[in-house]
Each structure stands twice: as C-alpha cells, then as structure tokens.
Design brief:
4-stranded antiparallel β-sheet, membrane, 4-stranded mixed β-sheet, single chain, ubiquinone, Phosphorylase Kinase, domain 1, 4 domains, 23 helices, UbiB_kinase
C-alpha cells in the first residue's frame, strides 16, 4: 500500500484536498493522511459546521469534482439502500456524467489499433459527430463497408482504464484505512463494499461483456416480436470497441411525439412492465439501468432496450425469495416479510428480531389502508431495504438493483399510464414462481439432490472419520471451542449425530425389508405377523417414514 501511495501521491493529495474543501477534513485527519501525504494541517480545517449544505449534498459535490471513476461508483452506490441512508441515496441519484467528448483523431486511432485495419477499410462512412458521450466512452454512427448496414460504434476513452484502476486502488486503500482507524466505519465493511463496486465498474470497462449481456437478453425474447435487442457485430468488436445494430426510434420519454404517432400509452406501459418482469422474475437476468434514454420505441410499437453495461442476475432461489417477498408485501404479512428478508440478506449474529419485527410492522402500517393500485412496488421494497440497513442486514447487490430498476420503471409508467399498478402486474409473476417452486417435479428434483448429497456424505464418512482419527492420534489437529459457542456447537453435533443414526436405521430397515420380500416371494405362503402380511406392515412403515421425511423437509424450508 505504501508503494501505491508514493506512486499515486498527486492523486492522493487531490482526493484529500477535495474532501477537506467540502467539509470532510476530519475524515482526512482521522485516517492519518496528513502525515502520510505530508500535507499542512491548515488546509484541513473542518468546514462542516459553517457549510449550509447537507452531508449528502457535500458527498455528491466531492464525487462530481473527483471525476469519472467516482461518478460511476456513486451511480452504482445509488442503488444500495441496504448500505447508505436515504438522504445520501437521493443525492447520489442526481449524479450526471456531464463529460466532454474526445477527438475524432483519438477515436480513429483506438478503432484502428483494436480492429487492426484502417477505418476506411472497415466502414463505408463514419460520422464524426458524437451521438452520446459518457465517462467511459462515446458513441458514433457508421455504415459497414462489408454489408452496408447502419451501426452504432461505441469507443472507450483513451487511457480511461489506467485512470480508473488508479482511483480504485486509492479508494480501496482509503476504505482499509477508514476501517482500521475509525471504529464507526467497521460495521459498514467499506473494503468489501468498494471491492464489490470495483468489480461492477471493471465489467463496464470490458465492452465484450456488454455484448454478451445483450445476446443473453436477446435470447429471452427470441419468440417475442414485441421486444427488440440490437444485434452485436463481433467481427468489429473488442474490449474497447463495440459495434452493434443502430436503433432508430422514439425514446419513451418523448411523450408528445408518441401521442402524435398514434401510440397507445396504456399498451406501451403494459408491454414495458411485462418485458422487465419477464427479465427479472422469469429469466433472472435483467437490464439494471432501464432509464428512458436506454429504451426506444420502434415502428409497430416494438420496444427496444440498449446499453447493457449494467445488468442484474437472480438465481432460482433468489427469484423464489423475491416472489415470496412480493406476495408477503401484498398480503401485508409481517412475519412472512421478515422471513423473506432474512432469506435474502446476510444477517449479523446479534440481530434483534423483536426490533426488526417492530420496524417491519411500522412499515406495514404505512401501506395498510392504501389501495394496491396506489402502492409503489419499488418504493415499498426500497423502504424494506432501508429497514434492513438499520439492522445491518446486507442485501445482495442484485436485489438492490431490482429495487432501483422498479423505481425507474414506475417513473416511466406513471407518465405513460398513471392508472397502471406495477404491484398488480407483479402478482401473477410472483404466483407463477411460487407454483413452480411447489411443483412435484421441482420438489422431487431438490429432494433427489439432497439425497445424493447425503449419499455421498455417508459413502465418504468412514474414510473421513478414519483420516480424522489418524490426525488426532498424531496430534496434527488442534480443536479450540470458545465457551459462548459451546452450547451451539453441541446442539449442532447432536442434530448431525441423530440424522446420521436415522439414516443408518432407515438403511438397515430397507435391507431387512428387501430380504423379507425376497423370502416371501420364494416361499409358498406369505410371511404373516398377527395375521397381517409382513410386506404390508413394511410398506405401511415405509410410507410413514417417507411422510415424516417430507414433513421434516417442508418444515426446514430447505427444499
């Protein structure tokens, strides 16, 4: 870390000065940066008391002044209601990428270096005018020489990767210092948060990832002609250049133009909601930044999504948990909401379930007498994640992306059709997921998976026990159990022992019954016990054991 500080000393100083200028001099001082960077203390007089701006506003100004890396990190952070309070999130949502475009000469150089041919050999024409400019890259319109097709060419800014990596190194170092030197920062786990944000940002630096994201979402709608995803031209794409089909149409926020062209706003709103819910709740892979600038309306009322740099992923379990959360919220069931949140998030060991229940109850009362058609699903989920934040429950970033996505969606839908209820449209998707979860074939698949796992455990158990005992005898294993955890450890050990014992008894019973069935089949008369066939008794007992097994699995909730 010291080597990095020396290497990036000028940037460290810039960051420290910007923090101090906006009233965060105490932060610089507490982390020991004054001494590390040889900065005069007089520059870091804390201005927080005399600055009329709120903490959130000052954080936003710091981010905007520090440039592209921090702006992108701030935009990612604006989705994390489980980490930051609402006051800061509201300011982070205002971050805009007001960056100038870079020269056409630099665009030409990058394309030719990446694609290995002169620009004129690749494109029949290339418009020097910039269609859109952002902190990482900019977009131009061009026409392919090989096919004559109109394409959009996205080109990464020169040296942007080096600059972002430098800033990420500094951010990670500052987060580590803050955790070590500022006790109140420990619970935020800043280093983990920065690493998570850094991963998202590095993915956006690789345009080939964005291209693959677009193709994954395109597969979801291959049989749905009402949704269009631009094609990717891989022969003309690399990590720094992305060439894709040019989309011509109206943006969904051009409401007057939509009306003039005779489009029904209600139908458009329903199509948009259906398309996004399909991505989130059915496919589990979705566009995480569906603002109006990234959604076009093509001829015939076809909706087209663009810019897949930021996407979210939900596994099967995550989709089921999210569906459970939606249904619980619709039924205003506090207990079910808490269970869903606990399944979704990473829960600290010392969480106070009573206080959590009280906070969720208060939230439920907020929406109790409000008609479903007037409830914002995105806002309700964000409110619930705020409760999670207060109880230090970490929500996976993909879930917070869903909440952010729904808030953006509701903003668009409210302008298109104020009467449309996102909550009502979400219910059928949630019910479909829950039905799928409890479908016999799904349960059987999960049960077989569990049986396979336990089977492997039983097969490997003798060898593992032998190895364990051997290591214990040779003194290679040292076991330490703290007294506060002893009871928990013993209870878990007792439960595992009971499970193994039951498995052995069940296996023994199965072997005995198999022997009796074979003997009865070979004999002249069936074997009787109290005038009842032994086979019938065995079948009844097996049925009861199977029933008991199913009941145990359902009660555990792990199926």
């Amino acid at each position: 870390m010291i080597g990095k500080r020396i290497r990036h000393i000028k940037r460290y100083r810039d960051v420290a000065k910007v923090l101090a200028r906006h009233g965060f001099g105490f932060f610089v001082e507490e982390m020991g940066l004054l001494h590390m960077l040889s900065l005069p203390k007089r520059l870091f007089t804390d201005t927080e008391e005399i600055d009329p701006l709120s903490i959130g506003e000052r954080i936003r100004l710091v981010i905007e002044e520090l440039g592209p890396t921090y702006i992108k990190i701030g935009q990612i952070a604006s989705t994390r209601a489980d980490i930051f309070p609402q006051e800061i999130l509201c300011e982070l949502e205002k971050l805009q990428e007001n960056v100038p475009s870079f020269s056409f000469e630099e665009v030409e150089t990058i394309i030719e270096e990446e694609l290995g041919s002169p620009l004129s050999d690749i494109f029949l024409s290339f418009d020097k005018t910039v269609i859109a400019a952002a902190s990482i890259g900019q977009v131009h319109c061009a026409r392919l020489r090989s096919t004559g097709e109109l394409v959009a060419v996205k080109v990464q800014r020169p040296r942007i990767k080096t600059m972002i990596e430098t800033d990420l190194e500094i951010l990670l170092d500052l987060a580590t210092l803050a955790e070590h030197r500022m006790k109140r920062m420990e619970r935020l786990q800043l280093r983990d948060v920065v690493e998570e944000f850094a991963k998202s940002l590095r993915n956006e630096l690789d345009y080939s990832i964005e291209g693959r994201n677009a193709e994954k979402i395109a597969k979801q709608f291959k049989n749905d002609k009402s949704v269009h995803i631009p094609s990717i031209y891989w022969d003309y794409s690399t990590r720094k250049v992305l060439t894709l089909e040019f989309v011509e149409g109206l943006r969904l926020n051009q409401f007057e133009s939509l009306k003039k062209n005779g489009y029904d706003h209600k139908i458009l709103a329903e199509k948009l909601v259906q398309a996004l819910f399909h991505q989130i709740l059915i496919a589990g892979f979705f566009h995480a930044d569906p603002h109006p600038g990234n959604i076009f309306l093509l001829k015939g009322g076809v909706i087209s999504f663009i810019d897949f740099g930021m996407v979210g992923r939900l596994t099967l379990d995550m989709k089921h948990n999210f569906a459970s959360l939606i249904i619980a919220m619709m039924r205003q069931n506090t207990e079910a909401m808490i269970k869903a949140v606990l399944r979704i998030g990473i829960v600290p060991e010392d969480v106070n379930l009573l206080l959590l229940s009280n906070d969720v109850d208060e939230l439920r009362e907020k929406y109790m007498d409000v008609p479903m058609s007037r409830i914002s699903l995105g806002e309700a989920i964000s409110d619930l994640f705020e409760v999670a934040f207060r109880h230090r429950i970490r929500i996976p970033s993909d879930f917070t992306m869903v909440a952010k996505c729904l808030l953006i969606l509701e903003g668009i839908v409210e302008k298109l059709d104020p009467q449309l209820s996102i909550m009502d449209m979400a219910e059928p998707f949630g019910i479909q997921l829950l039905k799928e979860r409890y479908r016999p074939s799904t349960i059987a698949g999960r049960l077989w998976h569990n049986v396979s796992d336990y089977g492997d455990l039983l097969v490997e158990l003798p060898k593992q026990m032998k190895d364990l005992m051997g290591n214990l005898v040779r003194g290679r294993i040292r076991l330490e159990v703290s007294v506060p955890e002893l009871d928990v450890f013993l209870r878990k050990l007792d439960r595992i022992t009971n499970q193994i014992s039951f498995s052995i008894v069940l296996l023994s019973f199965s072997i005995v019954m198999a022997g009796i069935i074979v003997a009865s089949a070979l004999g002249q008369e069936p074997i009787m016990f109290w005038q009842i066939s032994v086979i019938e008794i065995g079948a009844a007992m097996a049925g009861l054991m199977l029933l008991w097994l199913f009941v145990s699995i359902f009660k555990s909730g792990k199926f």
